[in-house]
## 1
Amino acid sequence: MSSCSFVMFGATGDLVRRLLMPALYNLAATGLFPDRCALVGVAREKLSSDTFRRSLVDALREYLRAAFDSRVADRLLASVHYVRGDIDSPRTYASLANLLVAIEDHRPSPADRLFYLALPPMTFATVATSLAAFGLTAERGGAGWRRVIVEKPFGVSLDSARALDRELADVLGKHQLYRIDHYLGKASVQNIQTLRFGNGIFEPVWNRDHIDHVQITVAETVTVERRGRFYDATGALRDMVPNHLFQMLAAIAMEPPSRFDAVSVHRAKAELLDAVRPGSDGDVQANVVRGQYRAGAIGAANVPAYRDAPYVDAASSTETYVALKLRVDTARWTGVPFYLRTGKALSRTRAEVAITFKRSPTMMFSEKQAERLMANVLVLEVAPDEGVGLRLNAKSPNPSLTVGGVDMRFSFRDYFDAVRAVGYEKLIHDCMMGDATLFQSAGMVEAGWRAVAPFVDAWAESAGHDPFPYPAGSEGPPEADALLARDGRAWRPIEQEGAR
Ligand code: BG6
């Protein structure tokens, strides 16, 4: 028997309230969170453990996607503690060390510890170094495991990611560091591998001979909200592309790993990301469109311009939308463009990968019929629903030979009755089991930053160029359409349902 402590830095922040707590609750509800686990919050606010516990209950009531069951919450929150302190102050770590020893004194050993850094990336090294200095991460002498989860973005560039890695490697063993990207926890993203490698019908056509192009979209209705301080310094590209969008890209395009374990999967993904380049040589800028939302309306809600959001510079030239054309320089993908786009304050929340296949020869059809035939599109839906759709051409059931696109669809909801997961459940559980397969390796992070560096560098050279404006509630700046129109292609409308 063992016991554990789950220590959350940034415990009063948005991430803990919105995502972590619901995820821990879902784990507890399915019996996957250890019963004897103490929850320890660390943050700057002055709170008692009781007030902290109440704030966690409030967070569950507000953000849980399933019905709130007080028995599950009581089990999860049976042992809640709070440490008030600044992450720069040694006193914080001294108090934490005393608290953990006191908690573990009454519990079975070994006593495991998971430290979750729900903090901005520039603080990771400070916190990890201090944890180590106070012996909190030492695994010696029959102590249980000590693991540290750090949030994305890991650094802000290739150099800063490497520097951060070096700093963390000084104080943590490789096996203790878990770089999280919650997209990897989404069932639909994990399913990409199963779909590709678990079904014999896909791999033979999963290449440049059969695939015309790939579109990866993460469209969000959410605005910058109150995250201006982080977001204005980060922008859509750094916030979403080298991490969330590239997780999907890697899963779609990587070569089959020899095993489903951390080493093989990380290697396959890092190799793939290493082969990602701007879509065409020469002018990097021709492969990218940046946008920034202006005032508009999303549904019935009026949305002020990005520049009027709290903590955002009134003359900000940070992008809230980015569309990219990329290529993947491998034998499998030569000549197949990958179009990626992500943006905030758009008309609809939709995350998907759409794989458009080459058209079939249409000799047997009349010219008019052939015009109505559509390319097959395989759509892997990630949000708001999780599922898979395939656009096929079918004959309509009337005497004439009328053909057109139909959608063949599978939805996770219809098959699996799991509560709607947040995405963090699987990852936290895996970390507790010591399985890093669905986390990011240093190689993946570095390859991701390397792939976006040409765009960031090109923008730095043309500093002062404002992103293209788009009204909140739209599909993004019209210039993004030109990126595909130039190649004789078009984005799938984000309003569109299914694959049809
Ligand atoms: C976060 C980004 O990592 O992911 C946010 O920082 C973004 O800006 C969020 O809104 C999207 O996650 P999801 O799961 O809602 O698609």
Note: The chain has two domains: 3-151, 184-422+440-485.
## 2
Amino acid sequence: MEKSKKQTVFSGIQPSGNLHIGNYLGAIKQFVRLQDETDALFCIVDEHAITVPQDPRILREKTLEVAMLYLAAGIDPKKAVIFIQSQVPAHAELGWILNTMTPLGELERMTQFKDKSAKSSKAGILAGLLNYPTLMAADILLYQTDLVPVGKDQKQHVELTRSIAERFNNRFGQTFKLPKELLNKQTARIMGLDNAEKKMSKSAESKNNHIALLDTPDEIRRKIKIAVTDSGSEIKYALKEKPAISNLVAIYSEFSDKPISDIEKMYFGKGYGDFKKDLAEVVVEGLKPLQEKFKTLEKDPEGVLKILRAGAKEAAERAGRTIKDVKKKLGFVL
Ligand code: ATP
Ligand code: LTN
């Protein structure tokens, strides 16, 4: 199929901490699958990361780390465009323009804003945290995106993107394609290992909440050993009745490529101890190729920067077409 006939896919990850298996299963694994069948762009959204204060040295380090993790996970720069958001100025430009057209109430309703702002005093909440979704809308709309592969926590932001685009199109004529979120049912919300009621999160307080993609085998074994379980002893996938075990079964299934029903059969009559021991090895083995490739990439930061610069160039060309059309429609002098 010709490139232009393929569906366009866009997604982004913030370089704001250690990427974990929730990010991998909910997002990156989909990216790798989609790069073959679609026209895909994957971004490292550093301008989103600064909506909470960041140490500049660490931000730079984490930005390159996310790029290397994309590559180590199997995203191929020959198949997909990989780039850093701040290297394409059209994102901030369109983000601002969309800000001027988005009612405050719609931003205040966003669950992520409510959750993140609840953790600070009012004086500590930055305007950028509230305006975060308009920048995300800009990311998506600049590329005439059809599909946005994300975890469930981002569904609301993609829905808002659609209403922002619709409103703009109604007022100024057809400009943006209306994008849709793409969720993988089994992995859209991987739960914390220390608490099966909350999603696995980079910013969780406990170190035992998540398995980071670069955790050592011993760290992985330790975290799985102490992961919370449910009452009873059966290994089965039943989200309401057994949320913690269901989460571990889903992780097992994803890293082993075995369907959930096979895992339930394999562990019928066995206890949590046996299951957890095997799960740890499945995750250790599952992450091994990624970790090895990461180590190789780390030795060649210049090579990675080169890929990112080429990605930014291609992204800027494509984004440039949309931003030019938007400016013309708004009455800006070009
Ligand atoms: P945090 O984990 O600190 O809340 P985040 O979700 O705000 O991080 P990103 O790192 O940008 O931010 O998320 C990258 C991708 O990973 C997004 O598509 C997000 O939906 C997905 N994701 C994050 N946490 C999970 C999870 N627990 N399960 C599945 N997908 C997830
Ligand atoms: N908001 C997302 C990161 C993000 C994104 C995007 C995802 C920024 N821009 C565009 C998909 C498409 C998050 O916090 N996970």
Note: Residues 301-330 form the longest helix (30 residues).
## 3
Amino acid sequence: MRKKIVAGNWKMNMDVQGTENLLNALKSESLAADVTVMVAPTFVNLSAAKQQLSETEVEVIAQNMHFAESGAYTGEISAAMLQAIGIKTVILGHSERRSYFGETDEILEKKVSQAIDKGLQVMFCFGEELADRKSGAHFNVVASQLKNALFALPKTAWSQIILAYEPVWAIGTGETASAEQAQDMHAFIRKTISEAYDATTAEQLSILYGGSVKPGNAQEIFSKPDVDGGLIGGAALVASDFAAIVNAFN
Ligand code: 13P
């Protein structure tokens, strides 16, 4: 059985007080026990969030990390620093990192490889832009993002990978991929992994959908056979909405 996962990517939102308030609100919600729930506050609030959630099943994850061990990389955070505060999972490859901070497939390959080597679980994000979808290039774009950043990994590394397909045109826009578009892409992704590795690796892999997931559309999207959960932006900042999404599996 593949893991069902709902993760909240808080992006650059919530200061220390906002983080505490949102986590308190989340702790008062009841969350489906068979769903792995994750939240990704900003770096400065990771430690406090870990403490606040220590008696819950909710996992605190990081939004990014650097590929180097340590050294002269002003403003960056290493895998070891995350691990030292008990973080086990890191989001890599988010489209905002790619478009605003110049993260290329080549950089992401290094980041993924460092995270895996250090024993972190990687939630790897990727997805096409609107122009790719309009020109019909979306499957090719996604295949090359996966190949360039991930396919040098050994098969054993895939137990540490979660994929998050996030079409850029659906992020923060209120426009969601239809459940059918999500399913078509997720099935394609699983087939691509199966061809590059093997069927078992592909079958065991959790593939999340991200992009304007809300309480009102989560159930339909999550009902699709190759959609194993969601990576949630805006709706993760409202505890009741996030809880409703966590509880939206049939
Ligand atoms: P929204 O849910 O706000 O569209 O953001 C999706 C996202 O980018 C999650 O990483």
Note: Residues 9, 94, 166, 171-172, 210-213, 231-235 surround 1,3-dihydroxyacetonephosphate (CB under 6 Å).
## 4
Amino acid sequence: MAWWFEIKLWKRVFLGLALGVAFGFAVSQTMAPEAAAALLDRVKIVGDVFIAMIRLVIIPLIFMTLVAGVLALGDPAKLGTIGLKTIFLYLATTFFANIIGLSMGVLFRPGANVDLGDAEPRLVTAEAAGFWDRIVAMATKNPFEQFFAGNPMTLALTAVLVAIAIIVAVRSTRAGEKKPASGVLFVSLFALGVAAASGDILVVIFSSIVFGVVVLFLGATGAPVSRFFSYASDKVLGVTQWIMELAPFGVFALIAWVAGTKGLETFTAVFWLAVAVYLGCFLHMGLIYGGIVKFGLRLPFINFFRGILDAQMVAYSTSSSSATLPVTISNVSKNLGVSKSVAGSVLPLGATINMDGTALYLGIVALFTAQAFGYQLEPYHFALIAVTAALVSIGAAGIPSASLFLLATVLEVFDVTPEHTALVVGFIFPFDRLLDMMRTVVNVTGDAAVATTVAKWEGEIDEEVFRSKAAQ
Ligand code: ASP
């Protein structure tokens, strides 16, 4: 078995991806449709288990790395500058995503000549939470609410979190560290609150920062807590890497399911839409992120893309940037040399609010709709589509197909009728997974590019790691 582990992880995940595509196609071509679907559904369970495993570490990982990060920074003011730079970069990159998306929509005219006659209308009522609503909810939601509501998942997660805290504390005591007991008490209690808030990553981010800043103000008294968190965050990252050993199998299963059930035939119906989305996504990643890393940061961009390949492949197969988050944090800190302070704060925020792929996609689909139904667009409509697409991308959750159901908000800009909106959503929905996979890769890559940039600006990057090691 040793030979298997000697192969670099990203190569093994890539192998899983390639074999998954081949297997999915083979099954769908050689077996009867029902039997093929049944087999692929069964195979997909391996992928679902993989996703469930990474999801389990999301909350402890954000909590531990973020608190450790705040404590390592040592100065709440520095956190403020990191926050401002992060938000600025997130907005700036989304702006370019908008431009690229709209250009693709104009260039390829994906909606011209499509026949929506057979589409089954899908009513969409979901509304994107506004930016300010999310910010306000972040600070005003009671983190204990869900806990006391007795949600069994929350209770289980809390138990896992407290268990990790205790095991780590006991081990650190054995390793001869001084007085971790007070830290353990603090952490266990606070872990309860954070786990309780598991429904909303933004609440976890906010609570962790507040907790970290409080400990900073404790000064010398808080020193054992700092030591504890530094140790604990390393351990949780270790657990993430452990779970990543499942990635080749999980990715294989998920991709086989996609390839076998949503294969190439379906792709032809939305051919130009798919071309516009895929090309737009590649251009955005190459030009904007590649450009930032190469010309803005003067770092080798090949190493950047190589370093986050695991995260990209997991994003591609799961279509969920929040499920991918632990892998992104692990890749960015281990392979790109970004400090825990920056990776732990910038990436969780990015996974919830920075979705360049989504913004790019929504712009293209808006133009697709206008072209398909013959809505006349004035230049100001383009600007409005761009702004609404950006706002919706901020409000969308990092889960599969999240943004398709928020499309109505963007289409309102040029008064698309509810019937037309329902038709477009109904038309795209069966193919959305293939488009979703690609935009999720961009969403995750954008977070990594911004984290790298902020780290470089703040002197929080180990360039030797970035330049030499790349993908483990
Ligand atoms: N699936 C995307 C993500 O998780 C969100 C979207 O639907 O655009 O990043």
Note: The radius of gyration is 22 Å.
